[in-house]
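FORM 12-B: Structure-to-Sequence Request
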């Protein structure tokens, strides 16, 4: 009996040891992606120019899940890039629509820089392939980290080239090839407003409830449910409640087939959706 217990303990620590080795190997292999000429070539293909300060772009492409230090991950560059991109988009819209009112311009800017839109653009540009993040972290699969990476890249380009060249790069590599203004004018991105409009029109009680909150790599991940007449219709997950509720609303709108406030949804349809 004692021998079996000793053997079990041996196997336990043996497993822990090799798991730790695998984790170290994972991180080591991950950072090999950002070394050598291959990375610079891939980055240059995406940017359309050879970067002067390569370390800026390495930081911009490093997610917090693999580097905790504020000077090692892309969160500071994301903060800067968010402000720069917002200003450049505002300038672009101001010149493109000289006769449109402030409300229209604000709504268009929101459509152009919303997280889902930027995430899709980042993936199309190829940033996902060269971004360093912990692929073993399941929570990252439901977040828009590549949109954050794109903002960090804008911040890096701004610091590397200056405002004027950054503005030219954003227009030529983000706005013109990826943002189709005619489509965006007709796009409704506030799914919560659409769902609330439908609920009010049809006498439904709509609420958004936080049903779970957990720590993922030091950050709080929220699960928010769209609840209609006391029934959970859809759930959204994100690292803040606002984004989580928008995701839940989007899923609910798609599941229920809501196009506008007059859309008809069968009661059985609501009852059967979990």
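FORM 12-B RESPONSE
SEQUENCE OUT:
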């Amino acid at each position: 009996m004692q021998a079996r217990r000793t053997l079990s303990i041996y196997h336990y620590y043996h497993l822990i040891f090799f798991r730790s080795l695998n984790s170290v190997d994972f991180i080591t292999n991950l950072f090999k992606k950002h070394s050598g000429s291959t990375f610079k070539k891939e980055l240059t293909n995406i940017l359309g120019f050879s970067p002067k300060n390569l370390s800026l772009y390495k930081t911009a492409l490093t997610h917090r899940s693999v580097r905790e230090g504020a000077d090692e991950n892309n969160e500071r560059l994301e903060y800067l890039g968010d402000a720069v991109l917002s200003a450049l988009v505002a300038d672009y819209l101001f010149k493109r629509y000289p006769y449109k009112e402030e409300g229209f311009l604000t709504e268009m800017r929101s459509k152009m820089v919303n997280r889902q839109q930027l995430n899709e653009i980042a993936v199309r540009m190829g940033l996902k392939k060269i971004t360093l993040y912990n692929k073993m972290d399941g929570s990252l699969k439901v977040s828009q980290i590549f949109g954050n990476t794109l903002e960090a890249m804008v911040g890096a380009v701004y610091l590397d080239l200056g405002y004027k060249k950054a503005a030219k790069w954003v227009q030529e590599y983000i706005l013109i090839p990826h943002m189709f203004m005619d489509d965006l004018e007709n796009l409704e991105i506030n799914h919560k407003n659409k769902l609330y409009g439908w609920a009010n029109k049809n006498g439904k009680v709509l609420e958004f409830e936080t049903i779970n909150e957990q720590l993922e790599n030091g950050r709080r991940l929220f699960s928010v449910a769209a609840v209609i007449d006391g029934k959970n219709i859809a759930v959204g997950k994100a690292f803040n409640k606002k984004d989580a509720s928008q995701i839940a609303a989007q899923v609910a709108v798609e599941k229920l087939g809501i196009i506008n406030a007059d859309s008809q949804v069968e009661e059985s349809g609501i009852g059967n959706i979990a």
